[in-house]
Structure formats: C-alpha cells, structure tokens
Amino acid sequence: MAFQAGGQRSAPRPAPATPEAQAYLEDYAALLDAVPHPSFVVDHRWDVVLANGAFRTLFRETGPHPTAMPGDNFLRYVLFHPDAPDVLGEHESRWCLPMLAHFASVIEHHGHDHVLQAIRRDIAQDPIMEAAYRQGLPHWIRAVGEAAVEHDGTLRPLRHPDARRATAECRVVVETSRSLAELGYRRLTLVLREARRGPSRPRRARTGAAHLRVVPAAD
User: Fold this and answer.
1) 146: pLDDT confidence band, cut at 50, 70 and 90?
2) Which of 47, 75, 91, 101 lies in the 20 to 30 Å Cα band around 111?
3) pTM, entire model
4) Could you tell me the CA-to-CA distances from 130 to 119, 158, 165 in Å, in that order?
C-alpha cells in the first residue's frame, strides 16, 4: 500500500521541558548510536524523536515524500510511503495491518490529537485502506489473535539495502525506561536476524500507488 497522503508534515516536536531531560536525550542518542541494530525512539504519534545510524542505513534508499519519511513519522512511513515495501517484507499483512490496529487503539485514547486526526483523514481518503480500517481490521484481529497486534517480540520480514547482509527478518524489541516513559516516549529496536533458507517470494511490482489489497478474514 502506498498512498499519496494529503495530510501535512508532523508539527515540530517540542523540546524537553527541562535541561535535565534534554541532557538525558542527548546521552540516550549516544547510546542508540552504539547499537548495531536499527533503533529509534517515538512518541505516541510515532513521531521519531531519536534514531541511530543503523536506522538511517536501513532506510537510506527511501525516496523523498512530503509527509511519510521514516525518520519523521514511522507510522506514516509504513502506511503511506510507496517505497516502504522495498524494506518491509510482506508489507501489507505483517506491517500495515498491525500498525493500523495499533493506530486504532491509540486514537481511542488520544482522539483530539491533531496529528493523529490528520493520519485518520489520510486513511479515509483511500477507499481500500478505509475499508480495511473499518471493516477488515476486526476480522483480521479475530483471525490472527490479539497478540499479532503487539510489536514487542514479533518477527517481521525485512530487506536490508546492503547486499552483504543476509537479512530476511527482524525481531521487534520495545523498551521503555522510566525516564523515556515520563517524556511520553518509547524505544523500538529491529534486531536483524540471518536469512533462513527457503523458497524466495517474488517481490510485488510497484505502481504509482500501492494499496492494501487483501485483508485476511476469519474462517
């Protein structure tokens, strides 16, 4: 699914309220850069607050987009960027649907958030994505189970742009320190795993707009 989002770029993120919080984030950024796996910190909107060099390398071939760059808002990137399937394997079923389900949960608690509302409007502009969100998602959750909506601990297909890396999937690890939680942030790390031998799947040809084509329904 790639969607020509009509929304606006996320508003600039406010600086931490105290110098101590700012210093903590600066030191946390140094910690992230020491991690060999793609790692990033987001707020409840999925605005990216911090990201390390491995994260930037993973998405280095991502083309420009006015609203859905991975280093700006990761949710928008997954849902709306036409290049997302190049990195995120089994993009629709293994990335888009879990992110849509997470978004549905978050907007229930932050319904007046203008950034989330803008994302919701962009979802509504795509008839197929809107149908998946409103009708298909509940059937999908019942079919795969509530655990599939969670990010922490899940295995997700991944394609690394560096041909020397035999990456076929990653383990998503979600960690939130007390200080990050107080700032409203959490950290995600994509732990790269070696490719498992097996039949290769053909990559879907990209078109001008790639949409959510099929939402698995419960039997």
Assistant:
1) confident
2) 91
3) 0.82
4) 12, 26, 36
Report yes or no: 82 and 111 within 8 Å, Cβ to Cβ. no
- Please give the structure tokens belonging to residue 41: 């910190």
Q: Within 10 Å of residue 8's Cβ, how many Cβ atoms?
A: 12
Amino acid residing at 103: F
Strand 39-42 vs strand 167-175: parallel, antiparallel, or unpaired?
A: unpaired
Residue 59 structure tokens = 């998405």
- Sequence-distant (6+) residues with CB within 8 A of 113 are 44, 45, 107
Q: What are phi and psi of 128, to 5 degrees?
A: -70, -45
Contact in structure between 181 and 41 (CB atoms under 8 Å)? no
Residue type, 164: R
Element (H, E) at 48: strand 48-51
